[in-house]
Amino acid sequence: MKLSRAEFEQRYAENRLKIALVGMSNIGKSYTGMRLATGFDFDLIEVDTLIREQLGQGSMEDFAAWQGQPYSEGYSEREKQSIALESKATKQALNHQGGNAVLDTTGSVIYTDDDVRESLTKDWFVVYISASGDAIERLKVQYFKQPKPLIWNNFYQRKINQSQDEAILESYPKLLAARAKAYAALADLTIGSDVILDTKLTIEDIFQRLKPTV
């Protein structure tokens, strides 16, 4: 939803501003959403939580274990199930009724059903948190350290004599590059992860940077 700076501020003042955060897992969406909820009294809607509730999974680790790695037996089918669950959960989240809201989407929101993405861009101000600086290397490390469910969308490719982990490390940046274009296509505004995660910036500073420039 394209907004001018004045429209953004008016919607916030009238308690009807809807911001959706998109980008890779571990890029800073949840962190930013929680800060906005705490600092500016936004309703925080976490799609991951809605999906886990549908599955009956208690934690992100349980969800990741259920989905598995791209080389796991049955992963392809669970990937399809996960996208269907995400489409349903995101559609539910987009129907939020109430005051100012911030939507913490999953990294695979770009794979949800067409009507879901259309509603997202029509009714929400979409902010893409892009991977900047050393973020790509950090995301690779974080993926192994604290696994999250990940839709690979056929980007996992393993070469002869290559270990599964080596294939993951080589395939991951290619997945990121492809996703970056898809996130940018949804976005009304793009902000780097180096800004979002800058500890010197207050949430007031971040909120100002989320506003359109004109």
Automatic annotation (TrEMBL):
SUPFAM superfamilies attached to this UniProt entry: P-loop containing nucleoside triphosphate hydrolases (SSF52540)
Protein name: Shikimate kinase
